[in-house]
Amino acid sequence: MAEAVNDNSDGRAPTRRERAARTRRTILRAAYAEIADRGYHGMTMQAVADRGGVAVQTVYLVFRTKAQLLGELLSAAIRGDLDEGSVPTRPQESEWFREAIAAGSAHEMLERFVRGAVDIWARVAVVHEAARVAALTDPEVATVLAQTEGWRQDDYRRVVVLLDEHHGLRPGLDVDRATQVFLTLYGPGVYLSMTQEHGWTHQEYAEWVLDALSRLLLEDAPAEA
């Protein structure tokens, strides 16, 4: 029998759960790279297995279907669970989300939310866009994407409701329309367009979208510099 490999930082052999978690993360990282290179339809379970250095049967054992793999990949990217040693966190449980909800002004609330969540889009945008394209012809992917978008809409609407209740939206702008504006400007499509097609930096996109949303959503828009 082969000896257990002592590859933990404390020198002990990894447990079965730790090995399973590492295998899962390896597959997800391989799937991320495959989707980035080839899109969802171009990605195959065999290609994911080859890139991750695991058997294709292992990929199917962990994720069962390609659509399920996509859903888990979206969730992992949102939580920040793709890198070794990362501490996955749901956006609603993160410090920046709590700080945004507790902010004392509309502009502070919006700024904390935008600056906190922008790192999520840096991780998720490529996978989300590939899923959006695939969802046009694949009902399973459409279901996965609808669930992810539902979570995003709920979070954004929560922020918009608080802006409206405590600080005030622009006159004539209701919560539904404000949420739609928020979802459109602060999402993967615009993020990719600005950073990949137009060459904006991550920081430039964050600054621009914060300024744009402040002017479009809030009653007391920031003054011109």
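The record above closes out task 2.4. Task 2.5 opens with a second protein, given below.
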Amino acid sequence: MGVDLWYALVGAVIIALSVFAFISARHLMKKLLAFNMMGSGVFLIMVGLPQHQHGVDAVPQALVLTGIVVAVSATALALVILRRYVRSGGDPAP
């Protein structure tokens, strides 16, 4: 079992724990953090699985880099929306 498979297995464990945290958390910030951790697990799986005997495949790595940029942007947007929701009188733990 190589290091690449370990990345994929750790990614699967992170996804499983994040799904549990997302379902069990009531606070919206905790749900957002769990959702971001799910994305990190997916990125680990995408880096770990598509390794070949001839070397590293560049396409999944490019997709992961693009995904990280999109995840950071989406997180920033979610934080702004959550902040406005709380300031307007909403409860962050509905």
